[in-house]
Design goal:
With 90 residues, this protein is mainly α. It has one domain. Helix content is 62%, strand content 0%.
Length: 90
């Protein structure tokens, strides 16, 4: 159940990516994937590489995923900038 909370928190944080220029590696879909993967990896790290079940999940399980989602977005942005993706302006 905590894995669902991590994925949902990664998805929620990803929505804030619209406020910065789209220079992500893989575009907006690449940023989504990186945010979710980062949230799950950091969530696993905080929980000792085990996924808490229904009986042990708390609000903190979702909060633990926030740094991972931000790190995932930062990594996708850094890779995109390094590869020379132009900023898309509408």
């Amino acid at each position: 159940m905590a894995a669902l909370a991590w994925v949902m928190m990664g998805l929620a944080i990803w929505h804030f990516a619209i406020f910065i220029p789209d220079r992500f590696w893989g575009g907006i879909v690449g940023s989504l994937v990186c945010a979710i993967i980062g949230a799950v990896i950091i969530g696993l790290l905080f929980s000792g590489f085990s996924i808490p079940g229904n009986g042990t999940i708390t609000v903190m399980n979702a909060v633990e995923a926030i740094p991972g989602a931000l790190l995932g977005l930062a990594a996708a942005y850094a890779i995109g900038v390094r590869r020379g993706n132009p900023a898309l302006h509408l």
